Structure formats: structure tokens, C-alpha cells
Amino acid sequence: MRKLIGPFSQIVTMNGLPLKGTLHDPSLEVIEKGGIWIENELIVKIGPFEELIKNRQSDDEIEELGGDYVALPGMIDAHTHICFAGSRARDYVLRVGGTPYLEIARQGGGIWDSVTKTRQADFNQLLSQTGTRALRLLNDGVTTAEVKSGYGLTVEDELKMLKVIREVHQNQKIDLIGTCLAAHICPKDFEGTQKEYLTHILHELLPKVKEEGLSNRIDIFVEESAFSVEEGDFFLRKAKEMGFSVLVHADQFHPGGSQLAVKHGAVSADHLEASTDKEIALLANSDTIAMALPGASIGLGVEFTPCRKLLDAGAALAIASDWNPGSAPMGDLLTQAAILGAYEKLSFAETIAGVTFRAAAALALSDRGTLETGKLADLIAFPTNDYREILYHQGKMRPAKIWKKGEFIS
Question: Which of 37, 191, 369, 392 has its CA 20 to 30 A from that of 351?
Fold first, then answer.
């Protein structure tokens, strides 16, 4: 059955915009008093509502809106860690009190704390907590999200996490894309060197991940507290040989990871707070998506990713929440993107592109991120008649209506 939704005061389609470089708001396609025809989960036509409704058939459903609404593509959060157990409120209090992030990790906090608590949680406990967070994302207007493992760091516990992510994806309306981040840190209880741990992952875990169809994406954290550039180079090369797409936690505190990402053709290089002009140029001249994670900057009290420089250099910029229990506990993509845009002087088009079609590209998804014929009918509507109000309220204006694959969610 076909369904017509509208009229919207405005439909901001995000259609026809380039993947890379700067975007200016006058280039946005904005359809006034528009409607969207949906059939079999896909958008079949967009245009003026009054023209579309003239061609309706007797069995068509009309979902007529009352009031003012601006439609945007459903948001895509392309970097999250929402599969975890426990809290790191202690870390937060230490951090805002002046203790550096890396020092907290050395004291037994940081990622290892979350690893310990996530290992202790059984499958159903982890399923419930991850499902609750996924539902919150959907209610915030995020219709697709990436979710990383990386708080297990044993074969058994990493598989547990990836299976939880898959089950939440299967049982909820939101689409979840699982990524294997077993190379998050070298676990303290592993008897061997960091390279031996990576070799263990490659031989013992990744074949099972592939065999069970749990993920085709592999991530690694390249940083002083995690893995070196040399270790990352070895791991990424071997993972690619196994047929995995690769991505890198890069340049969070020190540069180096983004160079690896470009060298290995990573889908994305995420963080980039410490990127210099050298790394910016490398990313701009590659097909790797630069991923800003403003939630981590807010949570850690550090500089934002140099988004303005990246865009001006010609890079493709995505924006994600990095929702995790330690450095980015807020998990609010819209608020973070609005704040980032204000600090980095991003246009509305650049900010929204970062959480829609450019974020889709960071997940290698071509069927969503814009509102156009043939794309998934993932859309959200804000209670206003002027799209500029959305970021103006810096996250306080929330989506009032959400559709996933054409189904009304809330």
C-alpha cells in the first residue's frame, strides 16, 4: 500500500549535495508545503502536497499532518559504544577535578573499568541495557546507528557483545550496524605483547565474526594508551586481507592514526582532535571520511575536531556522538552537532550533512541519508515552519514525529 505524508511546512531533502568539502545553505533543496509518497519502505515521490494528493488512488493511505513541521532525513549516528555495562561517574569526577584521561586509565579507570563491568554482565543484562539506549537514540531521531564492541576483549566476550548488537537490531525498529573493536586496548589479563594480542584477535576472533556474519567492519584505537602506529599498520593490513572493511580511532590525543587510515583506505578516521595541517591535507585528498566526535571533546574538555579546516581543505566530514560510558556519556547527537557547529562555524547544511548522508557514507550505506526517490523512508519532523530553528535551539527542539522505513514510530 502507498502512503502520502504531509503537508510539511518544509522538506529539507539534503539531496544533490556533494560528499566532500564545504556546503552553503542556499544550495539546500527546500520543498515548501511538501508531501512524501512512500511504498514498500521506500520514498517513491516528493513534491508539493496538493499536487501529490491529486493523484491518489482509492486504497492509498493519507497521513495528513496538522500544524507546522519541517522534515529532515532520519539522523545517522555513525560512531557509538552503547553496548556496555556499568558507569564511569568516578572517572568523570576525577577528570573534571583535573586528573588527565590517560592518568585515570593508569589508575585502573578508563576503558578497562568498562571492560570489567561488561564482562560481568550476562547476555540478557547487556541486551536490556543496550536495547534501552538504542530506543533512546530512535526517540531522539536517530534511525540508524553504528555500535562497536570493544568492552569484552576476549573471544567469548567480544562475540557476546556483537551478538547483543545483532539481536537489538533484529528486535527494534532502529537499524544498528555492528563494528568489531576488539583492538580497543590490550587487556591487562592477556599474557603476551600487544602485537601478540592483535595476532590472537586475527586468528581466534575475526574468523568467528566472519563465519557468524556478526560484522564486516574492524576498528582499532591507535593512541599511546592503546596501540602504536606500527601495531595498527600490521593489524589493519591483516584485517583487510581477511576481507574486512577497516576504520581507525585516530588522532585523539596525538597524530598518527589518520595517516594509517588513509594508507589502508579506511572507511573513516574518527576523533581527529589532534590532527594537524598535515593530517587534514591527507584526509582531504583521500576517500576516508573524517569523523568528528564532539561528545568526546565535551566530555574530556578538549579541543573540537578542526571541522572548519577539514571542510575547507575538501574533506568529507561526518559527525557522531561517540556515546560511551567514559569520555562521551551524553549520547545526544543533535545537541552535540549544534554545539560543534557553533564553535567550528559550520553552516546548517554542513552540520546536518554530517549527521545524515555523510554519516551514511561512513557506514558505506547508499540507501539513506537523503529524502529522495528510491531511498529508505527514514524521516523526522520538527515542530516548526523554519528549518533554521532546529539548530538555533541547540538541541532543545526535538523531533516531534519519526518514521522508520515509512512506519510511524512516534
Answer: 37
CA–CA distance, 393 with 407 (Å, rounded to integer):
27
Residues 114/119/124/129 CA torsion (nearest 10 deg): 0
Record the cell numbers describing residue 60, joined without a space. 492509498
Angle made by CA atoms 331, 337, 342, in degrees to the nearest 5: 135
| Domains recognised in the chain with CATH numbers | 2-74+370-408 (2.30.40.10), 76-362 (3.20.20.140)
Angular region, 369: left φ>0, alpha ψ -120 to 50, beta rest: left
Distance CA(286)–CA(280), nearest Å, equals 10
DSSP 3-state of 290: strand
Beta strand spans in 184-227 (E): 217-221
Contact 300, 269 (CB under 8 A): no
Parallel/antiparallel/unpaired status of strands 379-382 and 401-404: antiparallel
Rg of the chain taking only CA atoms, in angstroms: 21
Confirm if 218 and 245 have CB atoms less than 8 A apart.
Answer: yes
pLDDT in tens, 247-271: 999 999 999 999 999 999 999 999 9
Query: What three-state secondary structure class fits 176?
Result: strand
This prediction has a pTM of: 0.97
